[in-house]
Amino acid sequence: MALMVGARVLARNLLRPWSRLPDAVPGRTGPAAGGGDGVRCFGSPRVLVETDPAKGVAVIKLKNPPVNSLSLEVLTEFVISLEKLENDKTFRGVIVTSDCPGIFSAGLDLTEMCGKSQAHYAEYWRAVQELWLRLYLSNLVVIAAINGVSPAGGCLISLTCDYRVLADNPKYSIGLNETLLGIVAPSWFKDTLVNTVGHRTAERALQLGLLFPPAEALRVGIVDQVVPEDQVHSAALSVMARWLAIPDHARQLTKNLMRKPTADRLVKQRDADIQYFLQFISRDSIQKSLRVYLDKLRQKKG
Ligand SMILES: CCC/C=C/C(=O)SCCNC(=O)CCNC(=O)[C@H](O)C(C)(C)COP(=O)([O-])OP(=O)([O-])OC[C@H]1O[C@@H](n2cnc3c(N)ncnc32)[C@H](O)[C@@H]1OP(=O)([O-])[O-]
């Protein structure tokens, strides 16, 4: 399935063995988050993977400064890393977190959706679909260690996980804020939120583009746990141990039972969903909204 993602980027990468990817950090061994001996690292500069084979757990760290926006390259590298972990029987769980201080992910990369060609939009959207499907249906236990602000696509990644731990910092809000940009969260973003917080909470959150600070996020159930900032990783590891205590086959079949109907809705109409996105994103009014929003972000600094 990964071959369908970001075809241009993947074709370039998949022609080489993983360890010889130009950007790869092959087999570095040493202390890392989660620490201790035997932690091995691979991945790319934008998607770091630290593995602890003895525990059967890996940590995927997004590292696309300044804001971990989900560019085509990040999406593609994320899918490749996940696929590699899934194909290695050593690993049963993965923690998804950020290497950018204070920012889990700013969501989809707005520059990928603004002023580009139709072919680019189609390639980008297929990559977004692919990451969602991969994460949502992953056989691994996937836990989000949310160590920063997490709007829109950043929230979506968290929602695909089996469990979400959020750092208790009032700046770290989380939610699907698309309407604030003048755009609309696609149906499968909406489904993922509804499956997590229920219909009424999702409806209100989506229409108002709510970004929930930690206490509120916990109250509505968009995250499962809020912990002091320096304990996000250890809390994620504790939760992981609990989930890994369940026999894999029973847990995996149950996850599939819960999630496959939602995923199938997209799988059955992926091309139509891309066409819908193309029509939507190409509208003059939408392009204008995105440009205005990007300009505001840029001016904020000046
Ligand atoms: C149908 C589609 C569904 C859509 C789903 C989505 O996910 S839509 C996404 C919805 N996402 C949002 O609404 C979140 C928008 N972002 C934010 O609210 C803030 O950036 C922040 C709170 C994440 C970080 O605040 P901070 O003060 O630490 O950082 P800062 O604000 O100073 O930005 C630094 C640089 O990053 C740039 N840049 C930022 N975001 C994006 C992006 N997504 N992409 C690309 N670039 C982005 C920003 O322009 C600036 O560039 P410059 O001037 O250096 O060239």
Automatic annotation (TrEMBL):
Pathway: Lipid metabolism; fatty acid beta-oxidation. GO terms for biological process: fatty acid beta-oxidation. SUPFAM superfamilies: ClpP/crotonase (SSF52096). Homotrimer. Its EC number is 5.3.3.8. One of its GO terms (cellular component) is mitochondrial matrix. It is found in: Mitochondrion matrix. Keywords: Acetylation, Fatty acid metabolism, Isomerase, Lipid metabolism, Mitochondrion, Transit peptide. It catalyses: (3Z)-dodecenoyl-CoA = (2E)-dodecenoyl-CoA; (2E)-tetradecenoyl-CoA = (3Z)-tetradecenoyl-CoA; (3Z)-hexenoyl-CoA = (2E)-hexenoyl-CoA; (3Z)-octenoyl-CoA = (2E)-octenoyl-CoA. InterPro entries: ClpP/crotonase-like_dom_sf, Enoyl-CoA_hyd/isom_CS, Enoyl-CoA_hydra/iso. Pfam families: ECH_1. Key enzyme of fatty acid beta-oxidation. Able to isomerize both 3-cis (3Z) and 3-trans (3E) double bonds into the 2-trans (2E) form in a range of enoyl-CoA species, with a preference for (3Z)-enoyl-CoAs over (3E)-enoyl-CoAs. The catalytic efficiency of this enzyme is not affected by the fatty acyl chain length. Gene3D superfamilies: 2-enoyl-CoA Hydratase, Chain A, domain 1, 6.10.250.170. The keyword Acetylation applies. It comes from Lynx pardinus (Iberian lynx). Belongs to the enoyl-CoA hydratase/isomerase family. This is Enoyl-CoA delta isomerase 1, mitochondrial. CDD domains: crotonase-like (cd06558). Signal peptide: none annotated.
